Amino acid sequence: MPRLLPLSLLLLAAATGSVHAAPTPITIEQAMADPDWIGPPVESAWWSWNGQQVEYTLKRQGSPVRDTFRQPLAGGVAAQVADDQRGTLDAANRVYDRQRQRMAFVRNGDVFVRDLRSGALTQLTRGNERASGVDFATDGGLIWNVGNNWYHWNAGSGAIALAAQLKAEKNPADAPKADVLRDQQMRTLETLRRDRAQRDTLREQGERWRQADPTRAPGPVYLGADVEIVDSALSPDATHLIVATKPKNFEDGRGGKMPLYVTESGYEETEDTRTRVGRNGSAPHALWFVDVATGQVRPLALDALPGIGTDPLAALRKAAGKEPLKGDRTVQVMSDFMGGGIRWNADGSQAAVMLRANDNKDRWIVSVGGDGRMQNRHRLTDPGWINWGFNDFGWMADGRTLWLLSEESGFSHLYTQAGTGKPRALTSGKWETSAPVPSADGKGFYVLCNQQAPHDYEVCGVDAASGQVRELTDLNGVEDFSLSPDGQQLLVRYSGAYLPAQLAVVPAAGGSARVLTDTRSAEFKAREWIQPQLVAVPSKHGAGVVWAKYYGPAQKEPGRKYPVVMFVHGAGYLQNVHQRYPTYFREQMFHNLLVQKGYIVLDMDYRGSEGYGRDWRTAIYRNMGHPELEDYQDGLDWLVETQQGDRDHAGIYGGSYGGFMTFMALYRAPGTFKAGAALRPVGDWHQYNHGYTSNILNTPDIDPEAYRVSSPIEYAEGLQDHLLIAHGMMDDNVFFQDSVNMTQRLIELHKDNWSIAPYPLERHGFTRADSWLDEYKRILKLFEEHLK
């Protein structure tokens, strides 16, 4: 059961261990065992309505079930919420009214409102369809949507009414398309003309009655039968909608069929999978402005967006023999992040919409007034690609000033913008600002920051008037945070190298943290671990320094050379060199085992990794696998020059992007690494998905050279060292076909010293302990046989 510990004791145990204790020996079986033995991390957490306790979820031992616990801030033991008490829970994602006296949230798909003065909880819906988009209305009620229907709750009467209904259908009032036969029928047959006139009269009269009768719901809004509704947002005064659509039945290209061999039926089966990059690109979005009362729909023209008519890929298109771009570029509403891509201000007088060019080179924020007029507010353009993250935005309390994140300085920072003037930077410097949360009084923000060092994540307070930035926590590994209902405290989820995510409470003005949880098992807490040293590796290739985690013995033997293992993290744009609990916690234990067996290990945040700014992120544009390999070569040099590394006995391994880089290291720098393990690796970027790959390499039709220079299969001739390929056969992210194709290529090249280990029941991220164990026993054997 989680219990309260003093912060000083917990941080000492998590971060430093005993200064005199030697690391506890680890076995491969223990390192790859089901992580339940470690103890569950706190996966999500939120404030209770009165700020006197917090609620959070933990994975149940030996089960996929997540239980919910309540922890009083005053101390004591956390209590699991009983099944018959789950109806009293609050939720993580909530909204507050202007006075911060009520909060609303969606739990289990239903809408609730909580009075923060009395604690009274009112359930507004009870259904099997999930509500979303909940917000407070200007009349003190609530609005939300279920699918394409928007609802309004009147706080005074308690009545719930349909506020708007969107339909991707033809409006029955529209005139039919011209047709010679129809025209002939209507001209020659009076009965048909009379029947149609009577139908029109009934419909028109019914609509007049609907508009005149305040007890009636507004009629459906028809957007046409040739579109699909992607997103919508109702204004807080329930008078207008902004709607995003895409063409109906947009063909995004031929999908794949993944064979499944080990099945319950006993027969081989297939599963539909995603399309490949460039198979038809992304669907274009259109924006519509809707008057709810009349049902009038107006398109919002995007041709005034700055740069919309300029093709940033014109030169590549021409070189590829393609026709030049005609007309404006297509865009999409950026709806796939917290809060959505359409944000109304509190009084419903204007909305902000975030758009992204489908060629990945531009991001715009536009404002749409209550009269339907649109203005560009901000443009971010990048010759590489617009980042996946750092796209948060919203309205300040005045309802006129926007706040937004932008990488325009080279690093993600927080800006405010009044009207259409130049944005004002509230944060600046060679560090990243993320996850902004406006303060309860509307005078500033709380943000995640790595101001002191790229690997040190804290909560910072930002004053909107002065731009003063102040670190409020000293936890080193903050994961995320939330503001208490009264705005006076921060609930912080933080972690450490061997500390899965835990909870602490910090005053919103800054101060000492009170630790609330320690969910580690007694067995895991009792162990001593090798603490990774965070080191800045000098770059010999113009990158300045490359941050890395170094694992090695506390005392090296003089004159001894140590075999080297280098680890490559996955995802490409991911940060692994930080003070948080790593995504690769199994690999971290494996690195302890390697040091135990006489190796030294280096884990690098190569160019392309998160946390180091725009230039670092885009250094791999059109050239994947090249700058990163230079960084690993520099890392090997650093190990040899400073850590007694044995250059002649170096190995490399990693999964996903790390598997791709293992291919590139062995193929493009033969002899550098005597052995490598490529796990779930990308072998050919033509096979990967569109959303990720087209950002970095554009599309194969207009940038074939980028795919040629970036795909390992093009370099397989260079293999001369020992290679292990390991891949889940049900991988629906990096297809197993990548490794099958690579296998065939190595066969054709008559290559020796390679092997492949398929895992019939694993997808991209392995979930079974026996698969993890088998894979890492093979990796260990590879290194033991060829690096010593």
Task: Give a short synopsis of this structure.
The chain has 788 residues and is α+β, with helices and mostly antiparallel strands. A hairpin with an 8-residue loop joins strand 16 (255-260) and strand 17.
Report on this model:
With 788 residues, the chain is α+β, with helices and mostly antiparallel strands. Helix content is 19%, strand content 32%. An eight-stranded mixed beta sheet has the order 37-38-40-39-41-42-43-44, with helices on both faces. Strand 39 (562-568), helix 7 (585-596) and strand 40 (600-604) form a beta-alpha-beta unit. The protein is globular, with a radius of gyration of 29 Å. Residues 1-19 have low confidence and may be disordered.
